[in-house]
Amino acid sequence: MKPFRELFLTFAKIGSFTFGGGYAMISLIDHECVEKKQWITSDELMDITVIAESTPGPIAINCATYTGYKKAGLAGAIVATLGMILPSFLIILLISTFMEDLLRYPVVANAFRGIRIAVAWLILQAAVKMIRKMLKKSPNKISSMIFVIVFGSITLLCNLLGFRLSTIYLILIAGLTGLYLYSVPGGRGERK
């Protein structure tokens, strides 16, 4: 029962104290599951994040399910998923019941403004960690760095100009670029 209790409590903590959705939770999942408990490796977290982004369902729940499955099989996957979902569900239920009344108080409204900044920071922190890990493992660091800078700049420019690119298109563009760089003869990557 100890692994199940540990899985539930770890993911309940992540689900309870992380505002901002799955992207903000990646940083905490990395800290808890990779660095602290070593249930999964940083490569596995990176891979599951990519897979979770391109499959149905929230990223954090998919990460919890994978980690639970790896640690304790199907039962572990269920326990970890419940740990991630249950606290968030209860918090949202409580907030939605009293939200309109709560936002009337300036202290609460200002607290939510502060939380937005923390969420942005958590998302940025997770992105920087993943980019560093990607560059560290990349066979051609310069090509990868140029790709990250150009891709990030184009995405930022599109957002600033009000042109919204669907996440699906971003994933397809990145996948095709990776396919070209590492699979097609004449691509600049070194893996073939």
Largest sheet: none
Our measurement of the CA-to-CA distance between the termini, rounded to an integer number of angstroms, reads 45 Å
Helix content: over 70%
Radius of gyration: 19 Å
Instruction: List low-confidence stretches.
Output: none
Q: Looking at the structure, what is the overall shape? A: globular
Total strand segments: 0
- What would you call the structural class? mainly alpha
Can you give the mean pLDDT? 83
Number of helices: 7
What fraction of the residues are assigned to beta strands by DSSP?
under 5%
Series of secondary-structure elements, N-terminal to C-terminal: HHHHHHH
Topology (elements, then pairings):
Blueprint: H1 2-17, H2 22-36, H3 42-54, H4 59-102, H5 106-137, H6 141-160, H7 167-183
Helix pairs in contact: 1-2, 1-4, 2-4, 2-5, 3-4, 5-6
Keywords for this entry:
192 residues; mainly alpha; 7 helices; 82% helix
